[in-house]
Amino acid sequence: MRGVGLFGGTFNPVHYGHLRAAEEALSAFSLDKVVFIPSYNPPLKRHGLVPSDDRLEMVRLATDSNDRFEVSDIECKRQGLSYTICTLQELVQNYGDRAVLYFILGMDSFMDMPNWYQAEAVISTVNFIILTRPPLNESEILASPYVDAEALNFPASESVTKVKLKQKGEAFLLNITALDISSTMIRQLINREKSVKYLLPENVQSYIIDKGLYRGQSTEL
Ligand code: ATP
Question: Residues 28-76: pLDDT tens digits?
């Protein structure tokens, strides 16, 4: 059966760390496609958040040239607080038996999951691809309350390790090319009028400049 990657995030803005991660997940799991899902109103990441229309458009621009990348406005259309569980339940229903769904997220986000709304339900709703992300190292995943102590004893391939979970659900740790890029870093550089070249696609950079996004954000970024 075909595999579909679901890549949720604020994408504020989207950058090469996201794009390369999606490409490596696509290849390592032979996925049919990766669907980028920009959040509308993320309960836990509101610093320097620009409107969802802009974030959605930037993701569209960034993914336009890749046939296997898709963008979903499911959270933007639903509005309200963007709870991952609601999105996943809707997508599980939409795809039915036609695909195996993998939620893609960075290790930092996975470690933050105890703070998520209905986190345990999220874990048992779909499969997980957890991306390595600096500065965390792989073994730190053992500190997650959802992960079994023997979690990392199951290498599946050179870059993929099956992660044993305490409850129902399949999770894999994907060792990706480490790109220490974050949206926070990009917002801070723009705010300081420094170059962000080569950290994100040029068309996204042009969009940010045209719209004057992230300039003069003096408070917490
Ligand atoms: P911010 O700096 O605003 O917190 P971010 O760079 O983490 O943002 P998000 O849109 O919040 O970007 O990320 C979406 C998902 O992609 C998250 O699960 C995050 O962990 C993952 N991710 C983002 N950047 C990277 C990266 N460079 N390497 C691996 N995973 C990443």
Answer: 999 999 999 999 988 887 778 999 999 999 999 999 999 999 999 999 8
b/e 39-63 (16+ beta carbons within 10 angstroms → b):
bbbbeebeebbbebebbbbbbbbbb
Q: How close is the Cα of 41 to the center of ligand 1, in Å? A: 16
Tens of pLDDT, residues 100-121: 999 999 999 999 999 999 999 9
* Residues linked to residue 8 through DSSP beta bridges, in sequence order: 37
**Domain segments of the chain: what residues?**
2-180
CA distances from 136 to 51, 107, 139, 158 (A): 30, 7, 8, 19
Report pTM: 0.95
Q: What is the pLDDT of residues 163-198, one digit of tens each?
A: 999 888 899 999 999 999 999 999 999 999 999 999
Question: Is the domain defined by 2-180 classed in CATH 3.40.50.620?
Answer: yes
Identify the residues whose C-beta falls under 6 Å from ligand 1.
Answer: 9-12, 17-18, 21, 45, 105-106, 108-109, 131, 133, 179, 181-184
Count other Cβ atoms within 10 Å, centred on residue 64.
Answer: 12
Cα of 9 from ligand 1 centre, angstroms: 7
